[in-house]
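Hi D.,

Good news: the full-assembly prediction came through. Inputs first.
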Amino acid sequence: MLGFIVRRTLWAIPTLAFVSFISFVIIQLPPGDFVTAYVAQLRNGGEYVTEIEEAMMRAQYGLNDPLLVQYWRWISAIIFHGDFGRSLEWNAPVSDLIWDRLALTLIISTLSMVFTWIIAIPVGVYSATRQYSFFDYIFTIFGFLGKGIPDFLLALILMWVAFIWMNLDVGGLISPQFEGKPWDTAKIINMLSHIWIPLVVLATGGAAGLIRVMRANMLDELRKPYVETAYAQGFSERTVVWRYPVRVALNPFISTVGWALPALFSGDVITAVVLNLPTTGPLLLQALKMQDMYLAGSFILILSVFTVIGTLVSDILLAWSDPRIRYS
Amino acid sequence: MTLEATAAPVEPETASREEDLYTAKPWTLIWWRFRKHKLAVASLIFMIVLGIMAIFADFISPYTPFSFSKLNTFAPPSVVRVIHDGSLHRPFIYAVKRKRDPETARVLYEEDKTKVLPIEFFVKGQDYKFLGLVPTQMHLFGVSDRKQQINLLGTDSLGRDLFTRLLYGARVTLSAGLIGVAFSFVLGLALGSIAGYYGGWWDSGIQRLMEFIRSVPTIPLWMGLAAALPVAWDPLFVYVLITIILSLIGWTHLARVVRGRFLSLRTEDYVLASRLCGASEYRIVTKHMLPAMTSYIIAAMTLAVPEMILGETALSFLGLGLRPPVVSWGVLLQDAQNLRSISLAPWLLSPGIAVVLVVLAFNFLGDGLRDAADPYGH
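Then the structure:
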């Protein structure tokens, strides 16, 4: 087991290096660089900057060096000093801007993952044990719809429905009147009345797919002889189903945690833009539009690192729960 | 994954039918199996109809996508009726009157129940070039009135007909999906076949690459790449680049299918036989192995289309993908970005419904094809 963990962790290191390189390439992609944008900003402010000064600045920041040298400077600052560079638009260090938002993204994604599982496991088990029943068909339709509706459209529709029928303004995470106030019961209730929409939106897409997976796995398992044996020994249906086939059918669930994370982060980014949540989404979008590339690159880097770690954890969990993987 | 297709491929009703089953060609068997999946057949018909409507969008739509009218902004969808004054009438719409709410100054439209505008077919309307070649004024349907319009899906903030724009947008969105899949097909086929055929180091290298791409959150990565495209570039060029960006990430599923098929076919007897006969590797791959997996590849490609369409829609919706004046479903949905415009004009969400329908249709179609892909399976 320990050997597996070490091997798997070592594998993650080249992946992380590659992810960080891609993020850096994205920072470099747009025409012009940090100095071009900075000088343009200065000139807009009425300052006079000569070409020579511009070239000197470029040399000072080391922008004439080869790409790999620049990459090394960027990544070593991040690894050794936690310095992600400066956001041009906000005129502040990137690390001051991102951690709050990343934490919130992580919280919402984790919550919706838990929510997804709470929906998907019982529904999948029900659909499999009552195959072709009325509710099985209902859940099948729900599954296909959940796969087909884009996240942002679902967010828009829910927001509209909440506004028309419940007269709730559900944009943002808390209502303006609670902004900056200390946390008390009223504020928490207010936040709960906002947070359900992103959770529902994110969970629907994931749950739709997982219900199908769970149902298919359960159907395979239920046909196996050991289930028959368990019934023959006189266990109740509940005991048989939940004790044996469900535990086997959950295996692919654990292995897809790693893939569910990137989907959740993607979904969170776009849902947050629609709902105006203070997570990574709106800031990332704005940073990309303004070509505030250090901010955008850091976001992409950290979100990707989260996913690599998530995949790592899910692989280790899978190996822990299924000895066949550990020893292969 | 199917509802109906689990049944036996063909019920042997008569002896001759059964004989047909044994002598039928693979593609006939695939078709018979596919036919059993009712939802997939319905989806196929829906997609064919939509495809034809998109190709002939300029003829079918009553207006042109950029013709605006200041006096027809945010007009609700026209209701097509057949009963006027209690008696049956040919399909018509009532004329609408534009009013303002005296308190909020909001524009309202009211039907004038006395003025009947029959829907006419093959009417003269705005100039356009049929399929970009033949200049003409003929539109499939419309109303002949100088001031009134027929807006099956309402109008947007500039008074442009949403039905017209939806049809023109279908051209861009659907073709972006298909072109994106074509690109990822090339990538997926090349890398998947190398991985599956040669195995060993090639296989584990390509496997790692695929795993890596799948572990990166797609939307932020797409956003990053799409944002790097300069705003000033030609919209058509941007369109091609966006599809390439989408396929750079989307090829992995296809490659996985191809790799899996290659792995299982590599050990088949007939491949060994052709190798013993001295066939070159190129010949073995193209003449013997690829034809055996065509049906699987088609199914996988069908299932990859909705991903491309959703990607294009999401990027354009965020303002990072295609930009006006290009009309795509994602661009149209930009108008429906905030609560205010949706509550004022809910019909602006109709491109979203179109997206959902198309994505569902491709999913059903792909499911049906995947079940039919192996006609000897059951």
